[in-house]
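Problem 12. The chain below contains 288 residues. Write out its predicted structure in token notation.
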Amino acid sequence: AQNRFIIAFPLICGHFSNITNELCPEERIHIRERSLSVINLFLDEMSKEAKNIITTVCDEQCTLSDRLLPKHCAPMIAQVVNKKKRDKTPKKLEFEKPGWESYRKTREDLTTMDKLHMALTELCYAINYCATISVWEYTFAPREYLHQHLETRFSRALAGMVMYSPETSEIAKPSELLNSVKAYMNVLQCVENYVNIDITRVFNNVLLQQTQQSDSAGEPTIASRYTQWYSDVLLRRVSAGHICFSNTLRSFVSLSAEGAIPFNAEEFTDPTELRSLAELLGPYGIKL
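Solution.
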């Protein structure tokens, strides 16, 4: 509950210059170096903690958003059909449906998400307390620390959402990836309600890099991974005669031989998946 006051520690570093004395000039250099390193450490740790909380919230929202995908309807439908076949008298079916986490039994019981939002509010209040902090001849901006951490984390999260495995040639479906990206972005947009930073700048910087062959850190991007997968896995099967185009379905269809490992090309080439892929890559990524 005291997290909102931790901005006092970086602010104290701005007063270190007042304790120097002309009688001890050798202390001035040490005090200056120490105050600059300490304020940088304080602001970096505050932003890291806020970033970790936001990451946890984003992961939870991505999980909840994934449960709303159509593929999760099949088990529920199958359960209903099997119950009706087994029992002549229909009984009340009990299984968790999306949205059950929103119901509260009592207002006193705080969920994990409630605690995370409270902690995030306290930290963002401290980060948003002042725009700049002057220490000696340097000026520090606490919000920029948070902005840099969110940008780095968002870029790494996108790389993890692709779930590309060169060994097994597996990759996330574009529609599912787009759904997770939108859920992640919705949480980051809510951060603007806590602290005065430009989240749109984070989106523009990160998503534009994901349409190139590699990002600013030299890591593979969404565009490069999907370009590699479609050319090395999908098109190679097309040239080998294992996949053909269906005018009826308007997508590629697998022609798996008996005993071969099943591969559903239509899950990656139907209009819905291609539209999602085009939305993710943008005009620059499509050229790759």
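Discussion. The beta strands are 133-135, 138-140, 243-246, 251-254. Students who got a different answer should revisit the alignment rule from Section 12.3.
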